[in-house]
Amino acid sequence: MPKLTEEQIREKVKLHAIYVNKVETQKARGEKPIDQEQIRIVLGLKTQSRVSQIMSSRPNSSPLTPENALVFARLLDCQVQDFAPRINALLSGTPVHQISIIEGSETEIAKAARQMAAGKKITTKNGRSISYPGNCSTEVRAFVVDSEAMQPELTEGCFAYVDPTIESSSGNAVCLVQDDKLVFAKYIGNSTYEFTNKKFKDRVFKLKGKDIEVGVVIGTFVPMVDQ
Q: Which of 78, 93, 130, 133 could in theory staple to 82 by disulfide, Cβ–Cβ 3.0 to 4.6 A?
Protein backbone atom coordinates (compact mmCIF):
# COMPACT_ATOMS: atom_id res chain seq x y z
CA MET A 1 0.00 0.00 0.00
CA PRO A 2 1.45 3.42 -0.97
CA LYS A 3 2.29 5.71 1.93
CA LEU A 4 0.00 8.64 2.64
CA THR A 5 1.00 12.02 1.28
CA GLU A 6 1.57 14.83 3.76
CA GLU A 7 -1.76 16.33 2.74
CA GLN A 8 -3.59 13.06 3.41
CA ILE A 9 -1.91 12.82 6.81
CA ARG A 10 -3.03 16.37 7.66
CA GLU A 11 -6.60 15.46 6.72
CA LYS A 12 -6.62 12.55 9.15
CA VAL A 13 -4.96 14.52 11.95
CA LYS A 14 -7.64 17.21 11.61
CA LEU A 15 -10.40 14.60 11.49
CA HIS A 16 -9.16 12.94 14.68
CA ALA A 17 -8.93 16.33 16.41
CA ILE A 18 -12.55 17.09 15.47
CA TYR A 19 -13.61 13.67 16.76
CA VAL A 20 -11.85 14.20 20.10
CA ASN A 21 -13.36 17.68 20.44
CA LYS A 22 -16.83 16.30 19.69
CA VAL A 23 -16.45 13.63 22.40
CA GLU A 24 -15.19 16.15 24.98
CA THR A 25 -18.01 18.58 24.18
CA GLN A 26 -20.64 15.86 24.58
CA LYS A 27 -19.13 14.77 27.91
CA ALA A 28 -19.12 18.36 29.16
CA ARG A 29 -22.85 18.59 28.37
CA GLY A 30 -23.57 15.36 30.18
CA GLU A 31 -24.43 13.59 26.94
CA LYS A 32 -23.38 10.12 25.91
CA PRO A 33 -20.42 10.70 23.62
CA ILE A 34 -20.16 9.21 20.17
CA ASP A 35 -17.80 6.23 20.10
CA GLN A 36 -15.98 4.29 17.43
CA GLU A 37 -18.45 1.41 17.65
CA GLN A 38 -21.25 3.74 16.50
CA ILE A 39 -19.07 4.96 13.68
CA ARG A 40 -18.24 1.38 12.72
CA ILE A 41 -21.93 0.53 12.37
CA VAL A 42 -22.70 3.59 10.20
CA LEU A 43 -19.68 2.94 7.98
CA GLY A 44 -20.64 -0.72 7.68
CA LEU A 45 -17.27 -1.99 8.86
CA LYS A 46 -16.70 -5.44 10.34
CA THR A 47 -14.45 -4.39 13.22
CA GLN A 48 -13.97 -1.30 15.38
CA SER A 49 -10.26 -1.44 14.69
CA ARG A 50 -10.99 -0.40 11.09
CA VAL A 51 -12.38 2.90 12.40
CA SER A 52 -9.15 3.53 14.30
CA GLN A 53 -7.22 2.63 11.18
CA ILE A 54 -9.23 5.06 9.06
CA MET A 55 -8.57 7.90 11.52
CA SER A 56 -4.93 6.94 12.01
CA SER A 57 -2.38 9.40 10.65
CA ARG A 58 0.34 6.78 10.30
CA PRO A 59 1.97 7.03 6.85
CA ASN A 60 1.10 3.39 6.08
CA SER A 61 -2.60 3.68 6.97
CA SER A 62 -5.43 3.86 4.42
CA PRO A 63 -6.27 7.22 2.85
CA LEU A 64 -9.56 8.89 3.73
CA THR A 65 -12.11 8.31 0.97
CA PRO A 66 -14.78 10.83 -0.12
CA GLU A 67 -17.49 8.41 1.02
CA ASN A 68 -16.02 8.05 4.50
CA ALA A 69 -15.40 11.79 4.70
CA LEU A 70 -19.10 12.47 4.12
CA VAL A 71 -20.09 10.03 6.87
CA PHE A 72 -17.64 11.50 9.38
CA ALA A 73 -18.84 15.03 8.58
CA ARG A 74 -22.43 14.00 9.28
CA LEU A 75 -21.62 12.12 12.50
CA LEU A 76 -19.34 14.85 13.87
CA ASP A 77 -21.59 17.78 12.88
CA CYS A 78 -18.99 19.44 10.70
CA GLN A 79 -18.20 20.03 7.05
CA VAL A 80 -15.82 17.98 4.91
CA GLN A 81 -14.06 21.28 4.24
CA ASP A 82 -13.17 21.47 7.96
CA PHE A 83 -10.77 18.55 7.73
CA ALA A 84 -10.30 17.71 4.05
CA PRO A 85 -10.46 20.67 1.63
CA ARG A 86 -9.03 18.45 -1.11
CA ILE A 87 -11.87 15.92 -0.81
CA ASN A 88 -14.41 18.70 -0.47
CA ALA A 89 -13.20 20.13 -3.78
CA LEU A 90 -13.53 16.71 -5.42
CA LEU A 91 -17.05 16.28 -4.07
CA SER A 92 -18.10 19.73 -5.30
CA GLY A 93 -16.77 19.04 -8.78
CA THR A 94 -13.98 21.58 -8.51
CA PRO A 95 -10.89 20.50 -10.45
CA VAL A 96 -7.94 19.60 -8.23
CA HIS A 97 -4.41 19.89 -9.60
CA GLN A 98 -1.20 18.58 -8.06
CA ILE A 99 1.35 21.39 -7.92
CA SER A 100 5.07 20.80 -7.44
CA ILE A 101 6.67 22.58 -4.50
CA ILE A 102 10.05 24.05 -5.44
CA GLU A 103 12.43 23.26 -2.61
CA GLY A 104 16.16 23.16 -2.02
CA SER A 105 18.86 25.63 -1.12
CA GLU A 106 18.33 29.38 -1.48
CA THR A 107 20.41 29.28 -4.68
CA GLU A 108 18.51 26.31 -6.14
CA ILE A 109 15.14 27.92 -5.45
CA ALA A 110 16.20 31.23 -7.02
CA LYS A 111 17.51 29.34 -10.07
CA ALA A 112 14.20 27.50 -10.49
CA ALA A 113 12.27 30.76 -10.12
CA ARG A 114 14.38 32.40 -12.83
CA GLN A 115 13.71 29.46 -15.14
CA MET A 116 9.98 29.76 -14.45
CA ALA A 117 10.03 33.46 -15.28
CA ALA A 118 11.83 32.76 -18.55
CA GLY A 119 9.41 30.00 -19.52
CA LYS A 120 12.19 27.44 -19.45
CA LYS A 121 12.13 23.90 -18.13
CA ILE A 122 12.96 23.81 -14.44
CA THR A 123 16.17 21.83 -14.00
CA THR A 124 16.18 22.18 -10.23
CA LYS A 125 14.81 19.01 -8.64
CA ASN A 126 11.14 19.33 -7.74
CA GLY A 127 10.27 18.65 -4.13
CA ARG A 128 6.92 17.59 -2.72
CA SER A 129 3.56 18.30 -4.32
CA ILE A 130 0.43 19.95 -2.99
CA SER A 131 -3.16 20.16 -4.25
CA TYR A 132 -4.59 23.30 -5.81
CA PRO A 133 -8.41 23.30 -5.79
CA GLY A 134 -9.39 25.03 -9.01
CA ASN A 135 -8.32 25.67 -12.57
CA CYS A 136 -4.77 26.86 -13.04
CA SER A 137 -1.96 26.93 -15.57
CA THR A 138 0.31 23.90 -15.90
CA GLU A 139 3.18 26.32 -15.23
CA VAL A 140 2.07 27.02 -11.65
CA ARG A 141 4.49 26.01 -8.90
CA ALA A 142 4.43 26.41 -5.12
CA PHE A 143 7.06 28.03 -2.94
CA VAL A 144 7.38 28.27 0.83
CA VAL A 145 7.09 31.82 2.15
CA ASP A 146 10.06 32.12 4.50
CA SER A 147 9.72 35.74 5.64
CA GLU A 148 7.30 37.92 7.61
CA ALA A 149 7.67 40.71 5.03
CA MET A 150 4.22 40.15 3.54
CA GLN A 151 2.23 39.53 6.72
CA PRO A 152 -0.68 39.50 7.21
CA GLU A 153 -1.35 38.83 3.52
CA LEU A 154 1.18 35.99 3.24
CA THR A 155 1.93 34.13 6.45
CA GLU A 156 5.47 32.97 7.04
CA GLY A 157 5.60 29.22 6.51
CA CYS A 158 2.65 29.04 4.13
CA PHE A 159 2.82 27.72 0.58
CA ALA A 160 2.27 30.31 -2.16
CA TYR A 161 1.00 29.15 -5.56
CA VAL A 162 2.81 31.21 -8.20
CA ASP A 163 1.66 31.56 -11.84
CA PRO A 164 4.37 32.92 -14.16
CA THR A 165 1.92 33.28 -17.06
CA ILE A 166 -0.16 36.05 -15.43
CA GLU A 167 0.85 39.67 -15.89
CA SER A 168 0.85 41.47 -12.57
CA SER A 169 -1.43 44.41 -11.88
CA SER A 170 -1.59 46.85 -9.00
CA GLY A 171 -2.57 45.12 -5.75
CA ASN A 172 -1.31 41.66 -6.72
CA ALA A 173 0.96 39.72 -4.40
CA VAL A 174 3.89 38.64 -6.54
CA CYS A 175 6.95 36.42 -6.35
CA LEU A 176 10.32 38.02 -7.10
CA VAL A 177 13.98 37.13 -7.23
CA GLN A 178 15.75 39.99 -5.48
CA ASP A 179 19.49 39.86 -4.89
CA ASP A 180 19.41 36.17 -5.88
CA LYS A 181 16.88 35.38 -3.17
CA LEU A 182 13.20 34.48 -3.56
CA VAL A 183 10.95 37.10 -1.97
CA PHE A 184 7.28 38.05 -2.03
CA ALA A 185 5.88 41.57 -2.26
CA LYS A 186 2.82 43.51 -3.40
CA TYR A 187 2.94 45.19 -6.79
CA ILE A 188 1.67 48.77 -6.39
CA GLY A 189 2.09 49.93 -9.98
CA ASN A 190 4.70 51.93 -11.89
CA SER A 191 7.27 49.09 -11.59
CA THR A 192 7.17 49.51 -7.82
CA TYR A 193 6.75 46.89 -5.09
CA GLU A 194 5.96 46.97 -1.39
CA PHE A 195 6.29 44.73 1.65
CA THR A 196 2.98 44.83 3.52
CA ASN A 197 4.48 44.26 6.98
CA LYS A 198 4.84 47.77 8.41
CA LYS A 199 7.57 46.60 10.79
CA PHE A 200 9.96 46.32 7.85
CA LYS A 201 12.17 49.24 6.82
CA ASP A 202 12.55 50.24 3.18
CA ARG A 203 9.21 48.63 2.41
CA VAL A 204 8.79 50.30 -1.01
CA PHE A 205 11.29 49.43 -3.73
CA LYS A 206 11.96 48.86 -7.44
CA LEU A 207 13.76 45.97 -9.06
CA LYS A 208 17.37 46.54 -10.05
CA GLY A 209 20.15 44.71 -11.80
CA LYS A 210 19.28 41.07 -12.34
CA ASP A 211 16.19 41.20 -10.10
CA ILE A 212 13.09 39.78 -11.81
CA GLU A 213 9.39 39.25 -11.28
CA VAL A 214 8.61 35.53 -11.35
CA GLY A 215 4.82 35.51 -11.29
CA VAL A 216 1.59 36.34 -9.52
CA VAL A 217 0.48 34.60 -6.34
CA ILE A 218 -2.88 32.98 -7.17
CA GLY A 219 -3.47 31.39 -3.77
CA THR A 220 -1.91 30.10 -0.59
CA PHE A 221 -2.12 27.10 1.66
CA VAL A 222 -1.30 27.35 5.36
CA PRO A 223 -0.11 23.97 6.68
CA MET A 224 -1.29 22.76 10.05
CA VAL A 225 1.19 23.43 12.84
CA ASP A 226 1.69 20.65 15.37
CA GLN A 227 0.63 21.70 18.84
A: 78
pTM to 2 decimals? 0.65
Domains of the chain, by residue range, sit at 6-91, 96-221
Q: Provide CATH code, domain 96-221.
A: 2.10.109.10
Q: How many angstroms separate the CA atoms of 28 and 113, rounded? A: 52
pLDDT digits (tens, 9 = 90+) for 95-138: 778 899 999 999 999 999 999 999 998 877 766 888 887 788 89
Helices (H) and strands (E) in the chain, counts: 7, 9
SS3 146: coil
Q: Does residue 134 come out as left (phi exceeding 0), alpha (psi in the -120 to 50 range) or beta?
A: left
In sequence order, the β-bridge partners of residue 157 are: none
Instruction: Please name the amino acid found at residue 76.
Output: L
Strands (E), 96-208: 96-102, 126-133, 141-144, 159-163, 173-178, 181-189, 192-194, 204-206
| Report for 44-53, 118-127, 151-160, 202-211: range of highest mean pLDDT | 202-211
Residue 157 DSSP label: T
The answer regarding whether domain 6-91 maps to CATH 1.10.260.40 reads: yes
